[in-house]
Amino acid sequence: MISPIFANLFLHYAFDLWIERTHPDLPWCRYADDGLVHCRTEHEAEAVKTALQARLSECRLELHPTKTRIVYCKVTGRRGVYPNVKFDFLGYCFRPRRVLRPSDRKVVGGFAPAVSPMALKTMRAAIRDLNIRRRTQVSLADIARKLNPLLRGWIAYYGRYTPSALSALFKRYKGHKVRAAGFVEKLARTRPDLFVHWRLGMTGAFA
User: Fold this and answer.
1) Strand ranges (DSSP E) for 49-123?
2) Largest Cα–Cα distance of the chain, in whole Å?
3) Which has the closest alpha carbon to 162: 110, 104, 85, 106?
4) Rounded Cα–Cα distance for residues 188 and 195 (Å)
5) What gap in Å lies between CA 183 and CA 203, rounded to an integer?
6) I need a labelling partner for 124 at 20 to 30 A (CA). Which of 17, 171, 190, 197 fits?
């Protein structure tokens, strides 16, 4: 499709060049029609939002009414209280999390990304579409060949930040399924090469 190319070119002039010219000191990023602008104060963020609304209106565009928000990046030392303290961007959810501070290896409150709940939902749907539960005639090796390209891609992308959050993609057995859990965990120990996520210590089955 050529329309995304035209949209990107249009937004390069409508947004990229405009933000660089009018607010050269503010970090920003954009992917297609999703973007972020980092401001220092709430007042500055409100002013940028108002100016951006006017700019897009000149270009016969508009900000998304529900997705466009001012978010407070709350970390250790910031005492402000605001209603919005998280946002999703490119499949990641950015929000306050406990992180390891590089300078002294101390756990502190940070503002960090991890795979978003919506991205996890999409991945689970992709796995369900493979209909693994009903394919009892195929071997685990065949299932691994089907799944590993997907898992490898997801882990390479979403595992870059807070990889432990990807564990939610895999089921944990409960109750009467304890024996099944033991079988899966034993198999993961003896054949860690079978599934990509087993090599990272994620021994759950598939959601």
Assistant:
1) 87-89, 92-101, 106-115
2) 64
3) 110
4) 8
5) 11
6) 190
> Residue 35, SS3?
strand
Give me the long-range contacts of 104-107 (CB less than 8 A, separation at least 24).
none
Beta strands (DSSP E) in 75-153 are 87-89, 92-101, 106-115
Model confidence pLDDT, tens digit, residues 100-131:
888 888 888 889 999 999 999 999 999 888 88
Which pTM was predicted?
Answer: 0.80
Residues linked to residue 107 through DSSP beta bridges, in sequence order: 100
The number of beta carbons lying within 10 Å of the beta carbon of residue 123 is 21
Exposed, middle or buried by CB within 10 Å (0-12, 13-18, 19+), for 16? middle
Three-state DSSP state, 171:
strand
Within 13 A of 14's CA, how many CA atoms are on the CB side?
Answer: 22
Percent pLDDT > 90 in the chain is 50
Note whether 30 and 19 are within 8 A (CB). Answer: no
Residue type, position 200, single letter = L
Long-range (24+ apart) CB contacts under 8 A made by 123-126 are: 123/150, 123/154, 123/169, 123/207, 124/169, 124/207, 126/150
CA–CA gap between residue 46 and residue 59 (Å, rounded) = 20
